[in-house]
Automatic annotation (TrEMBL):
One of its GO terms (cellular component) is plasma membrane. The lineage of its organism: Bacteria, Pseudomonadati, Spirochaetota, Spirochaetia, Spirochaetales. SUPFAM superfamilies: P-loop containing nucleoside triphosphate hydrolases. SMART domains: AAA. It comes from the Bacteria. Residues 5-259 form the ABC transporter domain. The keyword Nucleotide-binding applies. It comes from Spirochaeta isovalerica. This is Branched-chain amino acid transport system ATP-binding protein.
Amino acid sequence: MAPILEVDNLSMVFGGLRAVDSLSMKINEGEIVALIGPNGAGKTTFFNCVTGVYVPTEGDVYVQAPGASERKSIKGLKPHKITEGGLARTFQNIRLFSNMSVLENVMIGHHHRLNSEVFGAVFRDKKTREEEEKVVHDSYEILKKIGLEKHVNDLAKNLPYGAQRRLEIARAMGTDPFLLLLDEPAAGMNPHETKDLVDLILRIRDDEKISVLLIEHDMSLVMNLSERIYVVDYGKLIATGSPQEIKTNKEVIKAYLGEEVDA
Ligand SMILES: Nc1ncnc2c1ncn2[C@@H]1O[C@H](COP(=O)(O)OP(=O)(O)OP(=O)(O)O)[C@@H](O)[C@H]1O
C-alpha cells in the first residue's frame, strides 16, 4: 500500500540556519508515528513545512489519500488547501476561538467543506440551511466522540485545560482529515488528562481511521502510543525505528544528553 504522506529530503533554511536538514519520512495508513528530538531540533518547523505555513527551501511533500490512485505534491500550497487535501493539525500553543462556544469551534473546521455560494449564504436558501444543519449535526457527533458533548454550549475559554486541548483535536477532526498532525498534544496536561489523551488518540485511529503524526516530549506517551518513531537533532534525522529500537539507540541517548528516554 502506498504511503499516505511521503516527505522527500525536506530542508528549511532560515538565514544561515538549517532548521530542517534533508529530512525524509513516510507514513502509512493506520499508523501512529512520533517525531521527537531535543528542543530546537526542527520538529515544529517540519510540521510548518508539511502543512503549508512555510514553503520548504528544498525537498517535496506528497500525499495520497487512502484509496486514491496517485500521490499529489502539496509543496507550496496554502494551509487551507492542504487541509482540504486531508491533513489537519493542532498547534503547540492552544489556538481556539476562546469567546466562541465549543460547538462553534468545531463548526469552523467544517466550513471549507460547505458548497453553497455567496448567494446561498445571503439568502439562506434551502441547500444552505441543509448544509448548515449537517455541519451542526456532524460537529456534535465529533464532540460526542471526543467526550466533550456536555460542554457543547460552554465558551471554549471556560473549559479545563485538558478539555481545551481535546477541543483542538475535535476542531481538526471537523475538517475530515485522513492524517492528523498533533504538535505536543500532552503539553501541560496532568497524568490523568494524558491517559485520556492516549485513549482518545487510539480511538481516533481505530474508530475514525485517521492516521496520526505527533510531536511530543512526554516520552512515556511516545513509547506507549507510537508504532514508529523518527528522531531529529539539529534538523537531521538521527534514528528511526520502533519504540524498543529507539530506547536503546546510542545516538538518541547522546542527543538527549541525560533527558529521560525510558518509558
Ligand atoms: N521563523 C523562524 N525564523 C528563524 N529561525 C527559526 C524560525 N522558526 C524556527 N526557527 C529556529 O529553527 C530551529 C528549530 O526550531 P523548531 O521550533 O522547529 O524546533 P522544535 O524541535 O519544534 O523545538 P521545541 O521542541 O522546543 O518546540 C530553532 O533553532 C529555532 O530557533
